């Protein structure tokens, strides 16, 4: 396993969703005294050469998120789904490999992300998998994925799981299995994301419990 210090990765944070189920911009709501987006950036910034936040057109950058290694990137095709967001970030990334996470995951686990980065050389995708379930928005993608994403987008296919299904024999995918995930986060809180008021209430309860 390669040491993290020997690798250079970009982190891509997807922040352009419409938050329709919550009814307000979920990335600015606070959990544990920090906005959701701030919590994500605080976790991935120390692991990254740069952080790209993919935003929707007209979405204002948060005033507290102005770091020298952070850039706001506009989603090339707004409101067309997460695959376009991944594509928009990968095109702008300085590094060959990018860690991609959603901006509404308040309990990202730094140790697990470090492990994923350390095993990424030689693969085009590092993807958490538990049985039939996969989490494509807590994953690593290389720029080798760009032409395949472009091909799918040209066909009008916007589903990121469809992309993964189609490319699994064309790019190198390293599945991160449940036993590996459990070494760092046995409760799998790192994959918890917020879509509803109930999710937000639960996140605030968990934050008090786990003290992140």
What is the CA–CA distance across the termini? 27 Å
Query: What's the rounded overall pLDDT mean?
Result: 87
The CATH architecture term is Alpha-Beta Complex
Structural class, from secondary structure content? alpha/beta
* Strand coverage percent: 15-25%
Radius of gyration: 16 Å
> What composes the largest sheet?
8 strands, mixed
Number of strand elements: 10
Percent helix, as a range, is 25-40%
CATH H-level name... which superfamily?
Answer: Spore Coat Polysaccharide Biosynthesis Protein SpsA, Chain A
Describe the protein's architecture and organization:
It is a single chain. This protein is of the alpha/beta class. The chain has a single domain (4-207), classed as Spore Coat Polysaccharide Biosynthesis Protein SpsA, Chain A. The protein has helices at 36-44, 82-92, 110-118, 146-154, 160-167, 178-182, 197-210, and strands spanning 10-14, 30-31, 34-35, 50-55, 70-74, 97-102, 125-130, 133-134, 138-142, 173-176. The mean pLDDT is 87.
Task: Write a concise keyword list for the protein shown above.
single chain, 212 residues, alpha/beta, Spore Coat Polysaccharide Biosynthesis Protein SpsA, Chain A, 10 strands, 20% strand
């Amino acid at each position: 396993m390669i040491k993290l210090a020997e690798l250079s990765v970009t982190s891509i944070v997807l922040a352009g969703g419409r938050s329709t189920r919550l009814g307000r911009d979920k990335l600015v709501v606070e959990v544990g005294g920090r906005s959701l987006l701030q919590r994500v950036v605080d976790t991935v910034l120390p692991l990254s050469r740069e952080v790209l936040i993919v935003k929707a057109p007209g979405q204002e950058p948060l005033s507290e998120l102005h770091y020298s290694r952070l850039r706001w990137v506009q989603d090339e095709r707004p409101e067309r789904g997460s695959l376009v967001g991944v594509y928009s970030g990968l095109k702008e990334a300085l590094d060959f490999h990018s860690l991609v996470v959603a901006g509404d995951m308040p309990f990202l686990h730094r140790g697990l992300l470090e492990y994923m980065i350390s095993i990424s050389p030689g693969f085009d995708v590092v993807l958490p998998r538990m049985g039939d379930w996969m989490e494509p928005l807590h994953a690593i993608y290389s720029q080798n994925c760009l032409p395949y994403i472009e091909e799918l987008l040209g066909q009008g296919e916007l589903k990121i799981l469809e992309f993964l299904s189609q490319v699994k024999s064309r790019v190198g995918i390293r599945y991160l299995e449940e036993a590996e995930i459990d070494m760092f986060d046995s409760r799998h809180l790192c994959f918890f994301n917020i879509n509803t008021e109930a999710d937000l209430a639960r996140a605030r309860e968990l934050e008090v419990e786990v003290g992140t």
